[in-house]
Amino acid sequence: MAGLERALPALMSDAGELQVELNFGKDLDGTRYLAGAIQGEIVLRCQRCLEGMALALDLGFRLGLLCDESAVGTLAEGYEPLVVTAEPAYIADIISDEVLLALPIVPLHKDSDECHAHVKAYKPPQDEQRENPFAVLAELKHKQ
């Protein structure tokens, strides 16, 4: 996980491993593609209780390799575009992007009881008698 730099800010931990399978090929209609599967488990921060939560990944993707953006409209159904230029494309970046696309918008434990256990364990501080900040003004008023 530590090699997926784009995805790391969205994760709570870089622990764990992902199993990645990639296949390059050319379809019957001549479309060059990169197909892959990603499996594993990542750790996100639950936005309800702010504790770690595991999210199992089992993703499949199929990217149509294009030379320029103008060819995006010609891409067959079932492909997502990946524009390949003279600049090198890093596999780790492609995998990071696929992981980011699979993340929930708001990560939450599936069972709210997991979160409520943390909330129930919280003990608010005891109410203590605080001094009124305007007490000094009241004393000045009485002196006059």
Would you kindly provide a written description of the structure presented here, covering whatever features stand out?
It is a single chain. The protein is an alpha+beta fold and 144 residues long. The protein contains three helices and four strands; from the N terminus they run E-E-E-E-H-H-H. The chain has helices at 91-102, 112-121, 135-143; strands at residues 18-26, 32-45, 52-66, 80-83. A four-stranded mixed β-sheet has the order 1-2-3-4, covered by helices on one side. Strand 1 and strand 2 (32-45) form a beta hairpin. The radius of gyration is 26 Å and the shape is elongated. The N and C termini lie far apart (71 Å).
From the structure above, extract its key features:
144 residues, alpha+beta, four-stranded mixed β-sheet, 3 helices
Quickly describe the structure:
The chain is 22% helix and 29% strand. The chain has three helices and four strands.
* SSE order: EEEEHHH
Task: Report helical residue fraction.
Answer: 10-25%
Radius of gyration: 26 Å
Strand content: 25-35%
Distance between the termini: 71 Å
State the strand order across the main sheet: 1-2-3-4
Largest sheet: 4 strands, mixed
Indicate the structural class: alpha+beta
Shape: elongated
**How many separate domains make up the residues?**
1
| Beta strand count | 4
Q: Unreliable stretches, pLDDT < 50, 5 or more residues?
A: none
Supply the number of helical segments. 3
Mean pLDDT: 85
